[in-house]
UniProtKB/TrEMBL annotation:
Residues 184-202 have a biased composition (Low complexity). GO terms for molecular function: kinase activity. It catalyses: 4-amino-2-methyl-5-(phosphooxymethyl)pyrimidine + ATP = 4-amino-2-methyl-5-(diphosphooxymethyl)pyrimidine + ADP; 4-amino-5-hydroxymethyl-2-methylpyrimidine + ATP = 4-amino-2-methyl-5-(phosphooxymethyl)pyrimidine + ADP + H(+). This is Hydroxymethylpyrimidine/phosphomethylpyrimidine kinase. Catalyzes the phosphorylation of hydroxymethylpyrimidine phosphate (HMP-P) to HMP-PP, and of HMP to HMP-P. Pathway: Cofactor biosynthesis; thiamine diphosphate biosynthesis; 4-amino-2-methyl-5-diphosphomethylpyrimidine from 5-amino-1-(5-phospho-D-ribosyl)imidazole: step 3/3. The lineage of its organism: Bacteria, Bacillati, Actinomycetota, Thermoleophilia, Solirubrobacterales. Residues 18-156, 203-306 form the Pyridoxamine kinase/Phosphomethylpyrimidine kinase domain. The keyword Transport does not apply. Coiled coil: none annotated. Signal peptide: none annotated. It comes from Paraconexibacter antarcticus. The keyword Signal does not apply.
């Protein structure tokens, strides 16, 4: 009997569809393929979107979200999950129901998508609480950008000194009794995620403080991504150590889908057996290169990232089998 080739790991993305193909499910499946894992998907919302704008959002019925996850989990051996756009509190609750169908050991990477690069709101104001309470405690890694991190850290539970540091030690019910007086005011979701005007040092200190605050909400590891900073440094906090992942900033790159790509590569690397910090390094490297190589000519707005090296392949000789006719 010939040796069977090693089995290709399966990753599941639970996210919104971007009709323009730059972000969401479409970006996630490309990132999974780039990493050599098989991608399955459960769609939470359909967006009518291109590089310029989001012109419509249709939530998928909650039962249909759960049914998609159930169909995948029933048959495919899911090695890691990536969660992106949730949209509404109802969709978030459905995703939480779907997550309960997974083996508790399956790593879950959460990209808390709030606002599209083109400016549209992708998470209802009221859904932040559902995200924090139902999804973050199940997260192995959460990957907010700086504006998203401010929203999560401003959530009432984050400033509570009695908030938990691990879900096992501090079940959610404990945090329900947090005193009002110890809570920070919740930050509103900004209309668009704009770069900050702070110094690099101030941004670094803020990212670290936010990572620590978000860690108290329950995820095992927090990665505050650096795409909205003067220096594109990702800040990782695993509950013990802060790691800064540096890389060149590609100011003239095309970054639509950078966060989706980053979180999906991270999930794929966990599925391939890496630990969270090495997986975050690989995610940073691949997302940064995908921004650098981003497809500036595709659409009139922010071009989609190119994680598959599509542009570099143009003009390359076709493989022999492609020339059959
Ligand atoms: N201009 C850039 N140059 C280099 N790396 C970048 C750039 N923009 C983003 N990145 C990297 O891409 C990854 C995603 O970061 P980013 O902060 O853009 O996520 P995001 O804002 O959630 O993305 P999105 O807007 O697609 O949701 C991070 O590893 C970040 O460092
Ligand atoms: C369906 C969907 N999911 C996520 C994003 C965020 O990506 P970006 O901030 O690059 O627009 C998006 N625009 N659309």
């Amino acid at each position: 009997m010939p040796d069977l080739p090693p089995r290709v790991p399966v990753c599941l993305t639970i996210a919104g569809s971007d009709s323009g193909g730059g972000a969401g499910i479409q970006a996630d499946l490309k990132a999974f393929a780039a990493c050599g894992v098989h991608g399955a998907s459960a769609i939470t919302a359909i967006t009518a979107q291109n590089t310029l704008a989001v012109t419509g959002v249709w939530p998928v019925p909650p039962d249909a979200i759960v049914a998609q996850i159930a169909a995948v989990v029933d048959d495919l051996d899911v090695a890691a999950v990536k969660i992106g756009m949730l949209g509404s509190a109802e969709s978030t609750a459905a995703v939480a129901r779907g997550l309960a169908l997974l083996d508790p050991g399956v790593p879950v990477v959460v990209d808390p998508v709030m606002v599209a690069e083109s400016g549209a709101r992708l998470l209802d104001e009221g859904a932040v609480t559902a995200l924090v309470e139902l999804i973050l405690p199940r997260a192995t890694v959460v990957t907010p950008n700086l504006p998203e991190a401010r929203v999560l850290a401003g959530h009432p539970r984050a400033g509570d000194p009695r908030a938990d540091h691990s879900h096992a030690d501090h079940p959610r019910a404990d945090r329900e009794g947090a005193e009002e007086g110890t809570r920070r005011p919740a930050a509103a979701i900004p209309a668009a995620a704009t770069p900050t005007a702070a110094t690099p040092e101030a941004e670094a200190a803020e990212a670290e403080e936010l990572a620590r605050a978000i860690h108290r909400l329950g995820p095992s590891v927090v990665v505050v991504t650096g795409g909205h900073r003067t220096e594109a440094i990702d800040t990782v906090f695993d509950g013990t150590t802060v790691t800064r992942i540096r890389g060149e900033r590609h100011a003239d790159g095309a970054a639509h889908g950078s966060g989706c790509t980053h979180a999906s590569v991270l999930a794929a690397q966990l599925a391939l057996g890496l630990g969270p910090v090495p997986a975050a390094r690989e995610a940073k490297a691949r997302a940064s290169a995908a921004v650098r190589d981003g497809l500036r000519g595709v659409g009139a707005g922010a071009g989609p990232v190119d994680v598959l090296g599509l542009a570099a392949r143009r003009g390359a000789p076709a493989r022999p089998g492609d020339l059959a006719s």
